[in-house]
Amino acid sequence: MSQPPRWRQAYDAVDRAVTPHAEGLVRTPGFALGVALLRKATTIARSSAQDLTARAWHLVNLPAGSDVHRLRAQVGALDREVRRLTVALEAERRRTQPPRTTPSRLPEDSHADRAQPADDPRPRPARRGAQRPAGT
Description:
Layout: H1 6-26, H2 29-59, H3 65-96
């Protein structure tokens, strides 16, 4: 078997020298505290930046991202409610209406099988992908 390329040998040598020291550093309580503080600082900075940009958008009378997100969640909830009510209405109509009888058709009227009435009570399928749940 031949030896690995020179770059791989150099990488392995550096890896053997650095790994024990890096693992010792990562396993200290100070490192965990530092990472937690850095994470908190990042969260605060991101939140402050979002608040500042939202205020700037509102100053020029435009919606901020949070406004759009909230409106999309409301529209999604309304869409789900309308679909639920449509299904309930269709079930109620089917329960109260007598069954339809289909008249005999001539062979040349076969294309009419695909026609749908203008006031079709059946709910339509969704036109886009699934909505994100509220709060995400």
